[in-house]
Give the backbone structure.
Amino acid sequence: MNAMNSLRLPAAAAIALSAAAFLGGCVSDPEPDQMARTNLKTAPADLQLLCANAAATSTGVEDTKVLPLRSRQLDSGTYQVDLDAGGTMMSCIIDGEGNVQSVQPS
Amino acid sequence: MTDQRMHDSVSPGRRGSRRLTGKRLVAGMLAAVFGLGAIAAIAAETQVFDPKTREWVSYDRKKALKYYARNNQVPEAFRRQIVPFRTAEKPGTIIIDGNMHYLYLVQPGHKAIRYGIGVGREGFGWAGIVRVGRTAEWPTWTPPAEMVARDPSARPWANGMPGGPDNPLGARALYLYEGDRDTIYRIHGTPEPWTIGLDVSSGCIRMNNDDIVDLHSRIDVGAKVIVLMQGAALYKGV
């Protein structure tokens, strides 16, 4: 019995190590352009500007008067961007591919 | 010589010093001067990925200085690189993401050149849509009168510090205008390249000298500049 235990423990450790190595191998490093982040989790700049463009189109406000003020990640693939469109507050929902899902007064 | 007066936290002979005393007071005074409500500056914690340990680590002044001393360059994320950038803005437009410490120069084909930047510290961030009004090579730096009054090391330069490697404006400066009016904010180089990726300035956008020279060579006077900064204290041009 003792001999069995002494065999099982190293085997269990080996399995755990293998699993850790396997999992570690599955987690890839971020791409060079993704190697910084902040706790704010704002929308990427290009998505914020796509929302600004959509807000300018929907309101008729000149695009130089539409500015993203704040943004946040709603889930893994969607962001909300709040904008000032010539004094009117707008809210835009956009996915990570750059598709504007909605833009409306907030 | 044209007045190159501008806001920046760096003063000759005191580089790296941190002015914490009264910074909130100054921010509050700025808010009062500009008729703004409560400043909602949000202190974002920046993290960078360490490829050696494969961990995300906080990035602050102390770590930035240590990293630069060890590697003689900033972390990978803040180095110049081509990135995908889906936008309707025309090539040549400058987009600044102050929270992430990136400056994008829009290129054709949904690409951008991304540079690392240092931005305004808490209470000094701003956002808006402005333009490059003019540019200068190895610009003269003239400290604002209040800096001359409070900082003895700035006094010798009250009438202007000639351009050069120790000049706080670095190798090039792009002067940001709101219409035909100088905003007093600039995109400029720095003798402190390790500050890229940090919230350090009084509102100017700083880049390392190689990057500002590169950017300067690619842009035209009049280029549109969009500054995104969540929780900014000031809004320009909108």
Q: What stands out?
A: Chain A has two domains: 2-27, 45-105. Chain A touches chain B through 32 residues (CB under 8 Å).
